[in-house]
Write a structure and sequence with these properties.
With 382 residues, this protein is mainly alpha-helical. It folds into 4 domains: 57 residues, no CATH class; 177 residues, no CATH class; 38 residues, no CATH class; 68 residues, no CATH class. 54% of the residues lie in helices and 3% in strands. The protein has 18 helices and 4 strands. It has a two-stranded antiparallel sheet with strand order 1-2. A two-stranded antiparallel sheet has the order 3-4. The longest helix is centred in the first third of the chain and has 23 residues. It is elongated. Pfam families: DUF3644. This is DUF3644 domain-containing protein.
């Protein structure tokens, strides 16, 4: 196309560059000069005048926001659009299977993103068998699935991102063609990490201009998060046994550090805040630096509310005996919680365990039992 534009003598080099330079493809004056004198692309024939007319009539045919153009950037465009569709679907009101739809669509987005990276790195991402490229029954090339992309030695993704995608892939395999209860709350941290990881990856691998943050605004909520709502959510959304088993097995393969990696599961704390001035308190989001006193206080609160340590009845008894109350036993513990009706949901002392007919206790109950033993030391201490 540059050759036919040169032949018309109607375009100077700057005009030509204006038609072909964009963020994903940079062309300079030297390259136009090399095309003119034949030192570059000598064997390429000039386009016809009709082709030039068609080109100019459709120009610009790229996204003005990102500079992406379908003929040269199809995979990157598909990756962005698939993730945008996944998030919009999940945030849409009234959908029953939004997590399942999100996972399926997001996996497509990641597959396109990695295919585009492999293409730019000149890595052949087609399946081969016996040295030959594998084909579909209609003779189309078969490209790597997402799992294969993640396992490749040169995959550019971090360990946490890879673990997150491997987890979601296993979830997808479990929910394909099967009925599931709503699993939104159970997987929310993993889905949030998937979104943030995707945006970070596309910016780091292809450029900041391709990020999705401008396209995907803050999602508003109708839900508050007090203890009563937490109990309703937990009671109404039990995981199917196959998903619960799969999640447990996956987590067992990871270390504590890997499980706490924000790239694997991203958790956000929403803390109601009233500011001194309306103009200062009206922001929906406030980012707090990790090393500040405010961050430490928020962390202290969240550890009590979100990441509570759980104790069995045997562990509660063992803790008391370690404190010197040797006569405090299982019978004494059972009588105490029954007398205080400690398993009532609004007490906040514990919750049902992960298995049938089991119960786990929180630190608040441990403190209450310790206070009881201290008040009755003559009964429990030797």
């Amino acid at each position: 196309m540059i050759k036919v534009m040169l032949e018309t003598n109607r375009y100077n080099d700057q005009d030509i560059l204006a038609h072909f330079t964009r963020p994903t493809r940079s062309i300079n004056h030297r390259e136009v000069g090399e095309i003119r004198n034949g030192t570059r692309h000598r064997s390429v024939r000039a386009a016809t005048p009709d082709q030039l007319t068609a080109f100019l009539s459709s120009w610009p045919d790229h996204d003005p926001e990102t500079g992406l153009r379908v003929p040269g950037d199809e995979l990157l465009i598909k990756a962005r659009e698939a993730m945008i569709a996944a998030v919009h679907t999940f945030n849409g009101a009234g959908l029953t299977f939004r997590t399942e739809i999100f996972i399926t669509t997001a996996m497509i987005a990641w597959t396109y993103l990695l295919h585009e990276w492999f293409r730019r790195e000149q890595i052949d991402y087609r399946y081969r068998q016996g040295g030959e490229i594998k084909k579909t029954k209609n003779n189309a090339d078969i490209y790597w699935d997402l799992g294969k992309c993640l396992r490749h030695d040169r995959s550019p993704l971090s360990e946490g991102t890879r673990h997150n995608l491997e987890f979601l892939l296993e979830i997808r395999h479990e929910i394909e063609h099967r009925f599931t209860n709503r699993i939104d709350e159970a997987l929310g941290a993993k889905l949030q990490a998937c979104c943030i990881n995707f945006n970070s990856a596309i910016c780091e691998l292809f450029g900041e201009g391709f990020g999705l943050e401008k396209r995907l605004p803050l999602a508003l909520q109708f839900v508050t998060f007090d203890v009563r709502h937490q109990l309703v959510l937990k009671a109404g959304h039990e995981l199917p046994q196959n998903l619960e088993t799969m999640i447990d097995h996956f987590h067992e393969r990871l270390t504590d550090a890997q499980q706490s990696d924000p790239a694997f599961a991203y958790r956000v704390a929403f803390v109601p805040k009233v500011g001194g001035k309306a103009s200062r308190s009206d922001a929906a989001l406030k980012f707090v630096k990790p090393d500040t006193e405010e961050a430490k206080e928020i962390s202290r609160i969240l550890l009590k509310e979100v990441d509570k340590r759980r104790y069995t009845a045997t562990e509660i008894v063992r803790e008391m005996q370690a404190d010197g109350y040797d006569r405090f036993n299982q019978t004494a513990h059972t009588k105490l919680w029954q007398a205080l009706d400690a398993k009532r949901a609004d007490k906040g002392f514990g919750r049902p365990g992960d298995y049938d007919r089991t119960w786990v206790w929180f630190d608040t109950w441990l403190a209450r039992v310790r206070a009881h033993c201290q008040e009755n030391a003559e009964r429990y201490a030797p």
